[in-house]
Write a structure and sequence with these properties.
heterodimer, A: mainly beta, 1 helix, 10 strands, 6% helix, B: mainly beta, Immunoglobulin-like, six-stranded antiparallel β-barrel, 8 helices, 69 strands
């Protein structure tokens, strides 16, 4: 029984809860940004624009867990489909098409990955 | 296609947070191969090759090939390493006809591949034995009289289908056009999908599945009422989840500039950018999927094509090959760039004064027509892109151009003459528009795209303020040319003869103008524009806003309060976008524009300019010394004169007025086909032409017109001169301050340039108080200078008209006395002093009707008629006010359409008239008996040529001359058609007045 509803897949219909993957992925901290940037307008107000973004960060992943995630992004980036929490008050999950960025550097320690972050960019919501 | 403003829902989207876009490239796929074969000939030269003999057909058939498609020539099948060419015309079973080439190293057995792609190509001029031909072998027949239609199909379309079917429409098609004709039939065809309404301007293309090669060719074949047919082509590019467009690239820059005339973008591609993916000179479209928060929608100026960012063709590329990551970098440039790269022969199009017989002559030559000629006959632009021109009707005598590029030729023709700018918008549509700053303020009716609020821009805006004038004095000159090619010069000065405190003097000449007033307004606009206080206002818009396309003319508006700037400078008004530069951030997905605007200006002060002083050269004696005496010439055999030689005894100088083309004249009436010229400078065509009621010519050669509305009397000092108003109703206020109206003018044949102008009251229903309303007076005018008023008299006639005849050494005004009164003869001495009034009689003048009359030379006898009473015919008035009545029952009633339906010979014995039914009649006994004149023609205006035999008759476009008083009526012997070039220039001409001059 999954605790959370974070999902990932290579097609919109093929998303799997990360806790139900072949190698279970533990829950992580997600950092959701509804816009890529916030700019200052001519009237002094702030305006958010650009794609939503989200980062998934784990304090620690095993090598097997890391390799499980790697199957979704074998290069520097890949188009994936995810379900992740947004910033609304109900912490609702929403589905997005996204570009998944694999980190350039990985901190290894005792067959583990420390402070491991996956970036998801250019999020486009789908039903 | 008019620019549209943003709608409220669109503005709301542009102000929605979380907007982003994804960019793609369309058109990179290899087009279908239509035909493949190999060259089957040897070449003795590579120079000026325009056809290729082929054999070994491996794909398709020659009947599949369309003119305009692209031919690849390569060392192997499907390659274009030898070069490319345009299919010029329909091929035969052995020959491909191509646009003339000298750059192809053609040899036997090379591979030929025709692909289904139409591009912008030049069409070269061929001059062979002095004969000009377009596109190698198109000889002139009637292309500049019966014009080809121009298809408007809208831009190419890009469809990114989520599911099928999808539909594509062509909402701009109804704007297709043709000069001097109409579109009579439309036929759309496609290479895939299903069309409905294919013979209308509103077809719908339904695409049920992915088409072969991902593209559909759409053709629109137009047939004009003049019989001409022309076909335009556009493409629909289709993508779906299984056929993705190119999206792995970096957009380095993306911009458009008003001065350069178009848009371009610069791309770096990573992988997949081989020779087959990015083809040389191939069309390419940058397009987007746009999101405004959760709403996926594109916002743009082309309906149904809003997802297109920029359309272009691929220019040179930089291939960066390295062991880690190879890239290909290329620039795609709009049609303006490619047209600018086409070398063109000098256009040298000139106004045809008769039916054009050469490629260099054109009917009613305007900037639009000259530009159309360049785009249609010297390039393939009209078949692959929408062409929209100014609609400006100013005629030019010719458009010489020394520029070599087609674009520069267009600019030289349009920008120099009417200050119109050519431009291609991001969708690839060509526009030619008079610059917004030089358009009269009342005509700046284009849309304001949006009112830009502070919350619409990012951070800050940059406001450049000019505090010193750049131009201190503007001297402007140009000409107004009429349909016959004759011009009148106008000179304007802004602001005046004193320089502004600072700035340079600027001279602008060679402009096409309409009138002095228009010239002055233009000078004021030029001055204001050159000294624009806010020539550049850069605004970085925060939103993904692609509504600013630069072409055609468009506005934004803004309010900058004094408190908004440190210097307390404010501006409230319209802005004109001059350049657009998009900033693309692939991480955020933001494609946001920075737009360089300039503030709208309004006319500065301007005035009539100074006509350049005489140089003295024109008075130089160019005559040659007397020739020595030679021995007598031997007697030569009789040589028959060619038909173009003038006819002795025919009149030479004749002038007419018409109600739709104004005043025209010829000084070559004695030629077989006279060349007529118009003289309308100073007249307002929209009002004055149909308002002409009298045309007279004084012995000095000065011409006068009387208009109905306002009672305007216009004077031109000579044939071809400018009309200047010398009198109007306001010059005829009676002693009670009541307005009277000018009802007649007449001239003194014994004075060089003297006319009389008479006014009278107008009919007021139910009012019978003549002393209040029916007063008139007369004023003489000598040399255009108005004299004093005569004593007032009771007369009606304004609105209907009277006639003034100089006879018996005095002025005679024939007009209605008052309502329902008989025709009266008001007499004045030669100085214009009122003498007396005399009742002419009962047969005419029975109500407030127009009255007409003509004199018998300078004698005392006058013939008068009017439009009243079925019994009335005409009367004569002889010395001593002896009136003779000629009832219609026995005689005739001259037509009451104008004062020239009866003409009289100098002796008074011969008369020629048009009766009420429009039949030409003549009398040889002073009007006692009448017989048919010219039996087969109807004429409404007649003039005698000051002898007994020569008469000129005209109506509609027809002008005829008889040299025997219409006795034999033998064509080209005693009766001559003098319509000349009018039949060609003004086929709907309606002549109302005509005067023989000499």
């Amino acid at each position: 029984m999954s605790i959370y509803e974070y999902k990932i897949g290579t097609t919109s219909g093929g998303m799997t809860n990360i806790e139900s993957l072949t190698v279970l992925i533990p829950n992580m901290r997600s950092f959701f940004k509804p816009y890529s940037e916030v700019v200052t307008l001519g009237d002094g107000s702030q305006f958010g624009r650009g794609f939503p973004q989200v980062d998934w960060t784990w304090n620690l992943l095993t090598r097997e867990q890391r390799d499980q995630l790697r199957t979704f992004c074998t290069g520097a980036s890949a188009t994936v489909y995810i379900s992740t929490r947004t910033n609304d008050s109900a912490d609702t999950y929403k589905n997005y098409q996204a570009i998944m960025f694999w980190p350039l550097e990985e901190e290894r320690f005792a067959r583990k990955r420390m402070d491991f972050t996956l970036q998801f960019r250019q999020l486009v919501e789908f039903a | 296609m008019a620019i549209r403003a943003l709608t409220s829902p669109e503005l709301a989207l542009l102000r929605t947070a979380g907007q982003h876009s994804r960019l793609y490239l369309a058109g990179t796929e290899t087009p279908p191969i239509v035909f493949a074969a190999r060259i089957n000939q040897s070449f003795t030269t590579h120079d000026m090759q325009a056809q290729i003999t082929y054999d070994t057909v491996t794909t398709g058939a020659y009947t599949d090939i369309l003119p305009g498609q692209t031919l690849w020539i390569g060392s192997a099948a499907g390659l274009y390493d030898v070069g490319e060419a345009r299919i010029r015309k329909t091929p035969t079973s052995t020959i491909l006809y191509i646009g003339r080439e000298s750059e192809l190293a053609l040899t036997d057995n090379l591979y030929l591949t025709v692909i289904d792609e139409m591009r912008l190509w030049p069409r070269h001029v061929m001059i062979e034995s002095g004969v000009i031909k377009m596109d190698q072998d198109v000889v002139y027949s009637d292309q500049h009289t019966n014009f080809d239609p121009v298809p408007i199909m809208g831009p190419d379309a890009v469809v990114y289908a989520g599911t099928y079917p999808v539909t594509v429409t062509f909402p701009e098609a109804s704007e297709s056009w043709v000069f001097d004709s109409t579109i009579s039939a439309k036929l759309w065809t496609v290479t895939a999908g299903t069309l409905t309404n294919a013979t209308t301007y509103s077809p719908t293309l339904t695409i049920a599945s992915y088409p072969a090669n991902g593209r559909i060719r759409v053709a629109l074949k137009l047939t004009a009422a003049n019989g001409k047919i022309f076909t335009g082509y556009r493409w629909v590019y289709v993508y779906d989840a299984a056929h993705l467009p190119v999206n792995v690239f970096q957009l380095n820059s993306c911009s458009g500039d008003h001065e350069n005339g178009g848009f371009e973008f610069d791309v770096t591609m990573y992988g997949g950018a081989g020779q087959t993916t990015i083809r040389d000179r191939a069309p390419i479209i940058l397009f987007a999927k746009d999101f405004y928060g959760p709403t996926e929608q594109s916002i743009g100026q082309a309906a149904g094509r809003e997802n297109i960012v920029i359309t272009g063709w691929i220019d040179g590329e930089t291939i960066d090959q390295n062991p880690i990551a190879g890239t290909v970098h290329f620039t795609a440039r709009g049609a303006n760039y490619w047209i600018d790269k086409m070398s063109g022969y000098p256009p040298s199009v000139r106004l045809a004064k008769n039916t054009p017989a050469l490629w260099t002559d054109m009917t009613a030559l305007t900037v639009d027509r000259a530009v159309w000629h360049l785009l249609h006959w010297r390039s393939t632009a009209t078949s692959v892109m929408d062409i929209r021109l100014t609609g400006d009707s100013r005629i030019a005598a010719e458009f010489p151009s020394s520029s070599l590029s087609l674009w520069q030729q267009i600019k030289e023709i349009a920008t120099v003459r009417i200050i119109a700018n050519p431009g291609v918008d991001p969708y690839g549509r060509f526009f030619l528009s008079v610059d917004p700053q030089l358009t009269p303020a009342a005509n700046r009716t284009w849309a304001i795209i949006q009112d830009i609020l502070k919350s619409d821009w990012l951070g800050k805006i940059s406001l450049k303020r000019e505090i010193v004038n750049k131009i201190s004095m503007l001297s402007q000159s140009g000409i107004a040319v009429d349909a016959s090619g004759s011009g009148t010069a106008f000179f304007s000065l802004a602001n005046g003869h004193t320089f502004k405190h600072f700035g340079d003097a600027l001279t602008m000449d060679g402009l096409l103008l309409s009138s002095q007033a228009q010239a002055n307004e233009l000078a004021g606009l030029q001055m204001a524009w050159k000294n624009n206080k806010f020539p550049q206002i850069d605004i970085p818009l925060v939103a993904n806003n692609r509504m600013y396309t630069l072409f055609p003319n468009q506005f934004a508006s803004i309010t900058i309060g004094a408190a908004d700037t440190l210097r307390g400078i404010s501006y409230t008004g319209n802005l004109i976008p001059r350049s657009v530069s998009y900033d693309w951030n692939p991480e955020t997905g933001m494609l946001s524009p920075t737009i360089a605007f300039e503030a709208e200006v309004f006319p500065d002060l301007a005035m009539n300019g100074d006509v350049p002083a005489s140089t003295g050269i024109e008075n130089f004696d160019t005559s040659v010394p007397p020739m020595p005496n030679f021995p007598p010439m031997p007697v030569l055999p009789f040589v028959e004169w060619p038909s173009s030689v003038n006819n002795p005894y025919h009149p030479k100088v004749v002038v007419f007025a018409s109600n739709n083309y104004g005043v025209g004249y010829t000084t070559k009436f004695d030629s077989d086909s006279p060349t007529w010229t118009f003289m309308n400078v100073g007249l307002n065509p929209a009002v004055d032409f149909a308002d002409i009621r009298q045309l007279i010519v004084t012995p000095s050669g000065a011409l006068y017109l009387r208009m109905l509305t306002g009672g305007k009397v216009m004077r031109a000092t000579r044939l071809g001169g400018t009309w200047v108003q010398i009198a109007s109703n306001s010059d005829f206020i009676d002693i009670n301050g009541k307005p009277t109206g000018i009802m007649a003018i007449g001239m003194n044949p014994l004075n060089d340039d003297q006319i009389a102008i008479a006014s009278g009251g107008s009919f007021h229903a139910g009012d019978f108080t003549p002393s209040e309303y029916w007063k008139g007076c007369m004023r003489l005018s000598s040399g255009g200078v108005l004299g004093n008023k005569s004593a007032e008299f009771l007369a009606a006639g304004y609105g209907t008209g009277g006639v003034i005849l100089y006879a018996n050494g005095q002025w005679n005004l024939i007009a209605t006395h008052n309502r329902n009164a008989n025709m009266q003869l008001f007499q004045f001495n030669s100085s214009g002093a009122y003498l007396s009034m005399f009742d002419i009689g009962e047969y005419i003048g029975q109500s407030a009707m127009a009255t007409f009359g003509r004199t018998v030379g300078t004698s005392a006898k006058m013939y008068c008629w009017d439009g009243s009473g079925s019994a009335s015919g005409f009367v004569t008035i002889s010395a001593g006010n002896l009136v003779t009545q000629y009832p219609v029952a026995t005689y005739i009633k001259p037509n009451a359409s104008n004062d020239m339906t009866l003409a009289i010979s100098p002796t008074g014995q011969r008369l020629m008239a048009t009766d009420e039914g429009g039949t030409n009649k003549k009398s040889s006994d002073g009007g006692t008996t009448w017989v048919a004149g010219i039996p087969y023609l109807y004429y409404y205006t007649i003039d005698n040529c000051r002898d007994e035999n020569r008469w000129i008759l005209a109506a509609g476009t027809g002008i005829y001359f008889t040299n025997d008083f219409a006795t034999a009526n033998t064509p080209n012997v005693t009766i001559f058609n003098k319509t000349g070039n009018l039949a060609y220039m003004t086929p709907l001409l309606d002549i109302t007045h005509l005067r023989f001059i000499e």
